[in-house]
Amino acid sequence: MLARRISALSAPARRVVQIASVIGRDIDYALWEAVAAAEGISAAQLPLLAGELERAGIVVLGDAGYRFAHDILRSAVYNRIAGRRRRYWHQLVLTIWQRQQPAAAALLHHAARAGDRAAIAAFGLAAGAHALTAHSYRTARDAYTQALAALASDAVAARYTATLGLVQALEVLGEREAQAAAITQLVQLAQQLGDDRRTAEAAIHHATLRWSTGAFAAAAVIAQAGLQAAERIADLRLQGQLHEIAGRCARDLGDYDAAEQAFRTARSQYAALRDQRGVAWIDGMLGLVAQRRGDFQQAAEYQRRALAAYRSAGDPYHELRAATGLALAQWMLGNYLAAQAEFQHILAHARQVGDGRILESTLANLGALADILGDYQAAIELKGESLARSRAAGNQMGIAVNLCNLGITATKLGDYRQALRAFGEALSLDRATGRRQGEAYALHARGQALLAADQAAAACADLELARTIRAELGERDLLLSTEADLALALLERDRRAAQTLISHALARLQPADRADLREQVHAAAYRVLHACGDLVGAENHLDRAYEAMVSFLAPLPPQVHALPVAGRSIAPARANSPGRAGRDPDCASGAGRCAVGPPARADDFVEVRWIVATPADAALPSPAERRRHVLKRLLDEAAAQGAAPTDADLAAVLNVSRRTIIRDMAALGASGISRRTRRRMSQ
Question: Which end of the chain has fewer CB atoms < 10 Å from its terminal CB, N or C?
């Protein structure tokens, strides 16, 4: 049908519509007229021929001039033109149009179709530079790739410019394999050119790549060599960039004093240049150092300043990074919902602009927040997508972080084998790259999994190592968390050491610390002091742990409050400490609501009083034996009050996973002890 419509045109109309198809779907009339004139069709004839095309339904007249009625029509016309004729017309369009100075990308298109290598190189460089400025990174990547394919091998300076632009585009797109290859070429070209400016520029990108894959020490060496070149030419901008990379390396190796000094040097250099974007970037870096040191208010203030500067400058690339820093600071301050909302906004924006690195980290952060809020399925999906991106990009640091994050979810779900496998792989990666912060994270997480799996001795070994590293790094809040878990791991073999350690942690715990951290430390203190016979002190810490839990849950949605094991250190409100009045001083009791029979409705729940701990419990040698002894008592007490708790109710009270309760119930049954939970009413 299309062929018949085109064949029905007059010969001059067929010729001008072919020229129009070379120009594009939207037809620049002045250009159409100029090319047609070169083919012997006068300016007076063209309107008549355009009218013929319009009547045939091939072109339409809009506000901006003529255009093809559909791109399928344009393609059908274009594909019927002989190859040599197409190339000739593209060259003619290029020759005529470049006098009018249209967008370089449009000229690049015609240069490529004409096969004009010199024009492809020139317009590829121009189009790439324009696309980078406009944050159109895929367009920049494609333009620089075309330029490099057209440039002669001895055009070293031009090839360096194109490769530098390609590296910058690939950095944002997160295409690590292609970026690594381009950086290798960039370094070689800089060496061929032999000048300090290009040596320093290449060092910036080479060091950044090594840093992004977790090779912090190697990155620091590359940055130092580049800094020497930048100092020889007294270029403050290059010096600032290299000091900033050195600061990042020092920060991630745990040397916060060196990191802060490097960042402040970089900030002063940007300030001397009156480069507000550079100053904003360094403010973000200083915010991350403050965060590592536990000063989250200061961290948030730095990130707010950086974010405001980028928004004012209309810089979406750096705005996403400042927004990420602010969301992390909100998280560390315990503002989980605000952090989650900010990360979701960042995720949508990163997908829109194709920022691969921010996509990867934001998915990981949203997954970790889903964990905290008890949405484990979402956590697994988000963390899994982030891990897949890390593996595809060859980002060793990202792989290790994501493995740890997935292992934490597996631990909460009671899948200890999977968790330990993930932590082991992450630990190997962190040790290989020298990332001590990551090593401490993996050790602590593995220690938690081992503790939950009743392997206290192995847990102690990992937690001791994590504690040592975090003390050296100065990570106060993370250190307190590690010490709380280590105190619990020590209970079985050295109660005095456990009591000393938890006292040390309590002395450094601050009222302004995150609610979940306060809950964790006070809950650990409750268990340690109770095991050591200090029942009054234990009760005090149980109350304080409950108060911290209430503070944590207060701003969260009602559905989070109802989660049985939403990351809580003590049971939610269904099993809280109601106060000491009228209670056996040697026992700790709790209150709960249990359903009396299936199917459960709101009015099927009754209040139940449980004895959750007694001195006799602490005398039992193994954590599993002690837990099953308490479990049997809780079931007996619930039955005496006419109720049947669910596995989730019991898991919440005992601070274990539902899977652990199911396993314990099976063990009780195997030993001849027959008890029922609501899950087993029909068994």
Answer: N
Cβ neighbours of residue 507 closer than 8 Å, sequence gap 6 or more? none
Half-sphere exposure for 564 (CA within 13 Å, toward CB): 20
> Which whole-number Å values give the CA distances from 105 to 21, 127, 235, in the listed order?
18, 5, 32
Query: How many angstroms separate the Cα of 630 from the Cα of each of 60, 331, 456, 573, 665?
Result: 82, 36, 19, 19, 12
Q: Is the dihedral of CA 352, 353, 358, 360 positive or negative?
A: positive
The 10 Å Cβ neighbour count of residue 83 is 7
Do residues 172 and 356 touch, judged by C-beta distance below 8 A?
yes
Q: Enter the pTM of the model.
A: 0.55
Specify whether the CB–CB gap between 243 and 259 falls below 8 A.
Answer: no
The C-alpha atoms of residue 171 and residue 132 are separated, in whole angstroms, by 12
What tokens were used for 249? 């390396």
**469 touches 438 (CB < 8 A):** no
- SS3 state of residue 26: strand
Average pLDDT over residues 63-70: 85
Instruction: With a cut of 60, say whether residue 524 has pLDDT above it.
Output: yes
Rounded to an integer, what distance in angstroms lies between the CA atom of residue 263 and that of residue 414?
43
Rounded Cα distance, 504 and 479, in Å:
11
Q: Average pLDDT, stretch 644-656?
A: 76
Separation CA 625–CA 492 (nearest Å): 12
Tens-place pLDDT, residues 14-62: 999 999 999 998 898 989 999 999 989 999 999 999 999 999 899 998 7
Give me the count of residues in the chain.
Answer: 683
The three-state secondary structure class of 475 is coil
| Residue 352: band (very low, low, confident or very high) from pLDDT cuts 50, 70, 90 | confident
**pLDDT for residue 679 is more than 70:** no
